Amino acid sequence: MCGIVGAIAKCDVAEILLEGLKRLEYRGYDSAGLAIISPQSVLQRVRRVGKVQALKDAIAQYPIKGSIGIAHTRWATHGEPVEHNAHPHVSSFIAVVHNGIIENFEPLREKLIAKGYQFRSETDTEVIAHLIHDIISTEDCSLFDAVQKAIPQLRGAYGTVIMDTRNPDILVATRSGSPLVIGCGVGENFIASDQLALLPATRQFIYLEEGDIALITHNSITILDKSHNEVIRPYIESDAKYDAGNKAGYSHYMQKEIYEQPNAIKNTLEGRMTHGKIDLSELGAEAKSILRQVEHIQIVACGTAYNAGMVARYWFEALAGIPCDVEIASEFRYRKPARRKNSLFITLSQSGETADTLAALWLAKKIVT
Ligand code: GLU
Predict the structure, then answer these.
(1) Domain residues for 307?
(2) How far is the CA of 149 from the centre of ligand 1 (A)?
(3) Which pLDDT belongs to residue 177?
(4) Whole-prediction pTM
(5) In this structure, are 223 and 283 located in the same domain?
(6) Among residues 40, 115, 178, 330, which is most buried (max CB within 10 A)?
(7) Which of 120, 125, 302 to mutate to test the pocket of ligand 1 (most atoms within 8 A of CB)?
(8) Which domain-ending residue is among 189, 218, 237?
């Protein structure tokens, strides 16, 4: 899952979106794109394979005006990393950016093709754009209503932000397995998959919860929960000091992260050690007695987190003498794992958003209940 940034501001948003994407670069991605609605309500879209800088250069050559827009860095799951697969994806007046996976995109795609929709990418994302367009066209409803009607038809872990050129003063966002945070300004509002992207614009945030749908305008934020009831989510004032979105003089993000390891370990242990011992009180009053019963450990992760899991396996077995298995999340989630007695299930994710890892966690919870 990669990066999303959206803005509905008082000024032109191109700079805000590009800065947001730059700050999400540390997560890795293969292409980047943005769409902005011009003051004449025309959708302007630019996409590039490779670095955000390539997108920036393209926009510097042909500047884009407009105070509402959405942007994305893509990590391809469906379709090659080529320009026509980069986000935003468009269906006439609808533009969509999407993190995650739509598992049932194939039957939806077939249905929409049968209705006359032409697909211009190989992504799962494009079905969201056409589906919402189809609902608006056949049911003559608002974007916000159409999104509420589309959600039950989409299966998977995803986060989306959607724009409609006919209503250039709203953004609609949905959170279903992939985090989204609203950045609140004065007469302007923002949305992103990570607050880091918005720190230059605001320090006031509202985190969407699982299943939330948000309607964002210049001056208002309306949030519906998964049962479509209006809810108030708390404002959080960020005091984030750590700036992962900055290479801090290192040649690349991986180098920066390697040198940060001693500090990362220090920060993780801070407040979790008392009298030379790990303090488990954060895990709840029963944590100690539950952990004492553990007979097996199952670690599930992807990529670098999987490698970290393999190191943890050696330590768990050598130091605690507890048998430990490590599995790639995409394997675990697509098989039917047997329930094991007194097994401690641990998921690891660098971003906290890895779709396969989250799905594996849900599956593990389902197995035990
Ligand atoms: N599944 C989408 C795609 O392949 C989104 C991937 C992402 O999260 O960046 O385009």
Answers:
(1) 271-368
(2) 22
(3) 82
(4) 0.79
(5) no
(6) 178
(7) 125
(8) 237
Among residues 152, 154, 112, the alpha carbon closest in space to that of 133 is found at 112
- For residue 210, report the distance from its CA to the centre of ligand 1, in Å: 19
Report CA(143)–ligand 1 centroid distance (Å): 22
Whether 249 maps to a domain, the answer reads: no
- Co-location of 344 and 208 in the same domain: no
Residue at 333 is within a domain: yes
Residue 255 lies in a domain: no
Do the beta carbons of residue 163 and residue 62 sit within 8 Å?
no
Residues with CB under 6 A from ligand 1: 1-2, 74-79, 85, 98-101, 123-125
The DSSP 8-state label assigned to residue 103 in this structure reads T
Nearest to 162 by CA among 224, 205, 232, 98: 98
- Check: CB of residue 41 under 8 Å from CB of residue 226: no
Number of domains, the chain: 2
Using CA atoms, how far apart are residues 68 and 55, in angstroms rounded to an integer? 18
Pocket test for ligand 1, best of 52, 78, 120, 358 (most atoms within 8 A of CB): 78
Residue 165 has pLDDT above 90, yes or no: yes
Tens digit of pLDDT for each residue in 179-188?
899 999 999 9
202 Cα–ligand 1 center, Å: 27
281 and 210 belong to one structural domain: no
Residue 158 CA, closest ligand 1 atom number: 8
Please determine, for residue 44, whether its predicted confidence score (pLDDT) is greater than 80: yes
Helix (H, G, I), strand (E, B) or coil at 296: strand
How far from the centroid of its chain's Cα atoms is residue 240's Cα?
19
293: left (phi over 0), alpha (psi -120 to 50) or beta: alpha
359-363's contacts with Cβ under 8 Å and 24+ in sequence apart are: 359/157, 359/177, 359/329, 359/333, 360/300, 360/329, 360/332, 360/333, 361/300, 363/332, 363/333, 363/337
Tokens of 122: 């190989």
Q: Is residue 173 part of a domain?
A: yes
**Dist. CA 315–CA 153, nearest whole Å:** 44
Residue written as token pair 């299966």 = 155
Residue 307 Cα to ligand 1 middle (Å): 23
